[in-house]
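User: Fold this; tokens only.

Assistant: Input:
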Amino acid sequence: MAQQINLCTPILLTEKRYFSAQTMAQALLVFLVLGSGLCAAWVWSLESSSRGFNETMATQTAEINSLQAAIARSRANAAPVDAGLVQQIQDKRNALAARSRLLAALRDGVMVPGFAHSDRLRWVASSIPEPVWLTGIKMDDGRFEVVGYTLEPSALNQWVAKLSASPLMSSLRLTQVKVENTSLKAAAADKPSTGGAPTWSFSLVSAEPPPRPPASAASAAVAGVKP
């Protein structure tokens, strides 16, 4: 029987590549297409839910206005305020507040182009005055806090005004400002002075303003109900 001898060296054979660049590129393309489709479906569902909630909230607001008008007519006619109307308007307000909280929860975490936390951080970093340096930043949707040191306290006034004028801070109001002379603080603690220019530590807190109290007409109507 004739024998066959393989004269080809194994290292010269073409190596099988299971994870070639072309295969990985195709897999990445499929992943991107599927991810884009899922993101588009999620955004569409969120927008649809937001429209539904807005329509429901508008309807409930109209009902509240109608009940307030009925209470106002009762008071104008010197008739006793109907306790049922007062209870109805309170129930409507509670339902409207619950809808508002649910809508806010749905929108929480949704990135609005140009208004993300990264955009706010970038704006703060680019606006820091020269004699000011930061040691910490805390932020969420309803609160913004920065702490640090400065060589010139007057620079904080200009910086705060610049931050407040930015659209990124339009929903926040400056609620707390704390500035302390670190040299005096060290002297009070009997610590040796390091010399050099005096420094001040500061803390700036901005937060969303508290919600407005309910309308005075409804308050007067509730006060007019006899037990």
